[in-house]
């Protein structure tokens, strides 16, 4: 059973703080993703990693960075949190192309509030 | 660029009524389409994918390339079908583009 865990369910930070969101998967998946989920906008991809130390920008990377030092762990970093980054953040993982029909497995989400 | 549109933010039906959640897409290549579902207080999960051509929990979806649609259908809605539904399209091999989502409410 695929398990994707996220370090926090709820997080409250102040404007300007540096924020780390952690995600861990236990199925040896190559691909990992960070999305933000907003009502009416659905899920929007922030960053994608297809291997350790490899990353690609998604649709909305501005204001975010990522780190993937180990295969099972993918971190999302908000360098200087702003109120417009208040959102639900979802992490996901999947096997890579050629081995799967691209099903992504999601974590429970982190609801971040920036005040 | 690829785009997925779910025109209804909210769909409300009575138990036992047919339900159709609409999804339209634009993509220049050969698409792979999916429906993901999020039940209350649960994580987002895959419901079905078009290449499987299977029925999951009574739901089916047919890819119509002429109309660029992938509507999700169920002949008789159940209360436990109430959830948030997202249509998604894969591109660049691994990445998904999601629609804005439709909240389905099935009333008793």
Describe this structure in words.
The complex is a heterodimer of chains A (115) and B (108). Chain A is globular and about 40 Å long. Chain A has strands at 4-6, 10-13, 19-25, 31-38, 42-51, 54-57, 64-70, 73-78, 87-94, 105-106, 110-114. Chain A is mostly beta strands and 115 residues long. The termini of chain A are far apart. Chain A contains no helices and eleven strands. In chain A, 0% of the residues lie in helices and 56% in strands. Chain B is mainly β. In chain B, the strands form three sheets. In chain B, strands 2, 5, 6, 9, 10 and 11 form a six-stranded mixed sheet that branches. A three-stranded antiparallel sheet of chain B has the order 3-8-7, with no helix packed on it. A two-stranded antiparallel sheet of chain B has the order 1-4. The A-B interface holds A 4, 31, 33, 35, 40-45, 48, 50, 58-59, 90, 92, 94, 96-97, 101-109 and B 4, 6, 9, 32, 34, 43-46, 49, 51-52, 86, 90, 93-101.
Helix content of chain B: under 10%
Helix content of chain A: under 10%
Q: Could you tell me the radius of gyration of chain B in angstroms?
A: 13 Å
Radius of gyration of chain A: 13 Å
Compute the average pLDDT of chain B: 92
> How would the global form of chain A be characterised?
globular
Uncertain stretches of 5 or more adjacent residues of chain A:
none
Question: How large a portion of the residues of chain A is in β-strands, by DSSP E?
Answer: over 45%
Give me the secondary-structure category of chain A. Answer: mainly beta
Quick one: biggest sheet of chain A?
7 strands, mixed
| General form of chain B | globular
Instruction: Give, in order, the helices and strands of chain A.
Output: EEEEEEEEEEE
Output the structural class of chain B: mainly beta
From the structure provided, what is the oligomeric state, counting identical versus distinct chains? heterodimer
For the largest beta-sheet of chain B, the strand count, sense and barrel status come to: 6 strands, mixed
Q: Kindly state the number of beta strands of chain B.
A: 11
Write the element-wise H/E pattern of chain B from the N-terminal end onward. Answer: EEEEEEEEEEE
Percent in strands of chain B: over 45%
